[in-house]
Write a structure and sequence with these properties.
There is one protein chain. 41% of the residues lie in helices and 19% in strands. It is of the alpha/beta class and 303 residues long. Strands 3, 4, 5, 6, 7, 8, 9 and 10 form an eight-stranded mixed beta sheet that branches. Strands 1-2 form a two-stranded antiparallel ribbon.
Length: 303
């Protein structure tokens, strides 16, 4: 039994497919299949039901997979502990980031983090919150940058900073003449939101006291806040945006940003990690780098 075999087994269980798992593990499908077959022969049991689509673990396979996850965690703990004793920040960090954070925060700290910690391999995936939680449960992500209060208890949220909400208002909207707004000033029939699954959408719905089915003008299946803002530009609508998006708004459009009454709303930006996660040194380095870049208003890297 090898670590590689356990990793391949978990990958197939998560993907439900040998082909997808082989792509994820950067190995040919025959090699991956052979490793799992060897593991099954060594244990004397069938771990995966290959007759079903997607492939699913057998009953004994589910037990082995749970133990395999514990073994991989312990294995990674050894390397993390040794690196920490040597004063080295190194290893691989698989980071998930929600779409309303990724385009605004990543450019501020990624290049700084890479320069400070060249031995850390940072693998970033942009995903909505439910997919991040699922990926963390399946050990496909190590940590995530998301909005606080959106994770289940099995994921620990380490707070970074508050991110205030602002209104972004079309010049054709009656509220455009105002410099600041109250939540109750917003006519929800004129409000454009992101697609379902985005936590920012849920936060705004709760903030405005809206019913999900009746108050929205129409359904927009977009995960891009930039798309929503461009629709506002072309209509008489409005939307709500996070403070971290403000530096990326063109100068000629900044007059469309309206401050919401103080105390109206904000979201907390957090680092989410599994409670059993081991790479504390890397997570600490990530948090410190983000806070340093946010505090210093580090400009986005120009490539």
């Amino acid at each position: 039994m090898t670590i590689i075999q356990l990793e391949y087994l978990i990958a197939v269980a998560n993907c439900g497919s040998f082909s997808k798992a082989s792509e994820l593990c950067f190995v040919t499908q025959p090699s991956l299949s052979m490793q799992i077959k060897n593991l099954e022969e060594e244990l004397g049991v069938i771990l995966l039901d290959r007759t079903k689509k997607p492939v699913v673990p057998t009953q004994v396979g589910m037990l082995v997979i749970e133990k395999a996850k514990e073994a991989l965690l312990a294995y990674n703990n050894v390397r993390e502990c040794v690196a920490e004793l040597r004063g080295s920040v190194s290893g691989k960090l698989r980071l998930g980031v929600i779409p309303t954070i990724a385009p605004y925060l990543l450019p501020r700290f990624v290049h700084v983090f890479g320069e400070k910690y060249p031995k850390v391999e940072l693998e970033i995936r942009e995903m909505i919150t439910p997919d991040i939680v699922k990926a963390m449960d399946n050990d496909e992500l190590d940590a995530a940058l998301l909005a606080g209060g959106t994770c289940p208890e099995r994921i620990t949220e380490q707070e970074l900073f508050d991110d205030r909400f602002y209104a972004y208002v079309s010049p054709e909207n009656p509220l455009s003449a105002r410099t600041n707004l109250r939540i109750e000033d917003i006519y929800t029939k004129e409000l454009i939101l992101l697609a379902e699954g985005h936590c920012l959408r849920d936060q705004i719905i709760e903030l405005c006291g809206m019913s999900r089915m009746n108050d929205l003008p129409y359904t927009l299946q977009s995960g891009s806040l930039e798309t929503v803002m461009r629709i506002v530009d072309a209509t008489s609508m409005l939307t709500v945006i996070p403070e971290m998006a403000l530096p990326y708004i063109p100068e000629q459009l900044k007059n469309r940003v309206k401050m919401l009454a103080r105390g109206a709303a904000s979201r907390k930006i957090v680092v989410g990690v599994r409670r059993t996660y081991a790479k504390e040194t890397i997570i600490t380095a990530l948090r410190e780098t983000i806070m340093e870049c946010v505090d210093k208003k580090t400009p986005p890297k120009r490539w």
